[in-house]
Amino acid sequence: MLYAETDILQNKARMKREARRAALLALPMLALAIAGFLIRSQPLCLAGALLCGGVLIFLGDLRVAPLWRYGKFLREITGGLSHKTAGTLVRLGEEPVFEDGVWMRECILNIYEDQSEEGERRFLLDCAKTLPDGLLGRDVALTSHGNAVLGVEPLGSAS
């Protein structure tokens, strides 16, 4: 399997670290807003509040939100139903695709014996994960949750 409990724990730790960093960087702006409030300076208070909000929104959207979406994705795929599909691994996409809040690569599996184009099934592989070498063009058993790849195992010998 490509995912384990350690992936969820590492993502939580990274998200907490980034949230703390964002809060720490917004703290001086919050202090500026509080100082402006205490000395009754409306422009200073307003500037501090706007800067604090801007920093929190910017860093939250840039650093914390992607980790939150990835954590949601990990919880969903590790806790949901999975199924196996047998077929030939035809190709792996080179370009990343943004789907369900996560950057993925396409993984095309052909389930027909005659390798006709109608038998191709599209699965998505997390860009942070890699497949074992030498699986391209081989018969594999692909475990998935929806269309997200959870694991790939070779079937039989190389053809």
What layout of secondary structure does this protein have?
Blueprint: H1 5-38, H2 42-79, E1 83-92, E2 97-99, E3 102-110, E4 120-126, E5 139-145, E6 148-154
Antiparallel strand pairs: 1-3, 1-5, 2-3, 3-4, 5-6
Tell me about the largest β-sheet.
Answer: 6 strands, antiparallel
Amino-to-carboxy terminus distance? 24 Å
Query: Total number of helical segments?
Result: 2
What is the CA-atom radius of gyration, in angstroms?
23 Å
Using the alpha-carbon principal axes, give the shape. Answer: elongated
Low-confidence runs of at least 5 consecutive residues? none
- Tally of DSSP β-strands: 6
Helix content: 40-55%
Order of helices and strands: HHEEEEEE
β-strand amount = 25-35%
Category by helix and strand content: alpha+beta
**Mean of the pLDDT scores?**
91
